[in-house]
Structures are given as structure tokens and as C-alpha cells.
């Protein structure tokens, strides 16, 4: 998620990436909201994450701020377990196979790329391109 100021008001430019961690077996996969979303500062955020996995998976959300490596944001191991950090939260729902990331009021300081992952491995190269909006 990347936020920037455009015109006279704060606009939050959200960049959301896919993550399919290496080492997946038996059809394990993660499907994350893709594309770009624009929100105003203090808006409610939901980034969807669904998964397919054998066994009893652990789900993670990582955050990667510009110029830094990925950092663990939160995780959950058990069904209905809620992970929370920095105002973000996600509840692991093994029935719907989901682990959606939510925050009630996003801020400019939340600018980053967010990754949903199965297991504890995040590997990959992700390029970010942020373009100036009209009037910048």
C-alpha cells in the first residue's frame, strides 16, 4: 500500500501484490487482492487473502516499506485466531480459508506493500512504480 498527496487533500495509493511462496506443495496457494486501490486517509482498509492448503497451515501478513525488506506484521496458527499489530488485524478462518487484513483508519505512514503468505517464507522480487497524479 502506498500513500501520496495529490491535489490539496491526502490520497492513499494502495499497491497490493500477489505472493506465491516457493516451496508450496500439494497445491498449496495464496490468493491476494490484486491491483491498485485508492483510499482517503483515515478510510477503512480490507485486503482480501484466501488460501488453499493441506494440513493445518499458518498464515502470515508481511509488510515491506519502500527501500526495506519484508517484515512480519502478524500471523495466526489456529482457526478463529486473531493476529494484530500496528492497528492492523486479521482473523484466520479455516472454514472459508481466509485471512483478510483490516485496518479501521489508514494513515500515510501505512505506505508499504503487503503480502499474505502461507508458512513462513517470503521470497521474491517485487517492483514498485508509483506515478505522479494530475496536478502534482
From TrEMBL:
An individual GO BP term: adaptive immune response
Annotated PANTHER family: T CELL RECEPTOR ALPHA VARIABLE 6-4-RELATED, T-CELL RECEPTOR ALPHA CHAIN V REGION
Name of this chain's protein: Ig-like domain-containing protein
Pfam families reported in the protein's UniProt record: V-set
Cellular-component GO terms for this entry: T cell receptor complex
PROSITE patterns associated with the record: IG_LIKE
Keywords for this protein: Adaptive immunity, Immunity, Immunoglobulin domain, Receptor, Signal, T cell receptor
CDD domains in alphabetical order: IgV_TCR_alpha
The organism's taxonomic lineage, starting at the top: Eukaryota, Metazoa, Chordata, Craniata, Vertebrata
InterPro entries in the record: Ig-like_dom (IPR007110), Ig-like_dom_sf (IPR036179), Ig-like_fold (IPR013783), Ig_sub (IPR003599), Ig_V-set (IPR013106), TCR_variable_region (IPR051287)
Stretches of the chain forming a coiled coil according to its record: none
Signal peptide interval: 1-27
All residue ranges annotated as the Ig-like domain in the record: 21-120
Amino acid at each position: 500500500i502506498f500513500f501520496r498527496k495529490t491535489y490539496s487533500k491526502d490520497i492513499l495509493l494502495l499497491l497490493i501484490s500477489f505472493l506465491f511462496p516457493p516451496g508450496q506443495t500439494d497445491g498449496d496457494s495464496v490468493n491476494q487482492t490484486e491491483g491498485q486501490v485508492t483510499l482517503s486517509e483515515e478510510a477503512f482498509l480490507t485486503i482480501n487473502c484466501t488460501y488453499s492448503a493441506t494440513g493445518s497451515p499458518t498464515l502470515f501478513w508481511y509488510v515491506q516499506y519502500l527501500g526495506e525488506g519484508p517484515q512480519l506484521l502478524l500471523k495466526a496458527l489456529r482457526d478463529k485466531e486473531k493476529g494484530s499489530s500496528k492497528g492492523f488485524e486479521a482473523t484466520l478462518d479455516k472454514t472459508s480459508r481466509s485471512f483478510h487484513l483490516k485496518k479501521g483508519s489508514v494513515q500515510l505512514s501505512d505506505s508499504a506493500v503487503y503480502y499474505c503468505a502461507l508458512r513462513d517464507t517470503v521470497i521474491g522480487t517485487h517492483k514498485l512504480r508509483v506515478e505522479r497524479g494530475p496536478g502534482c
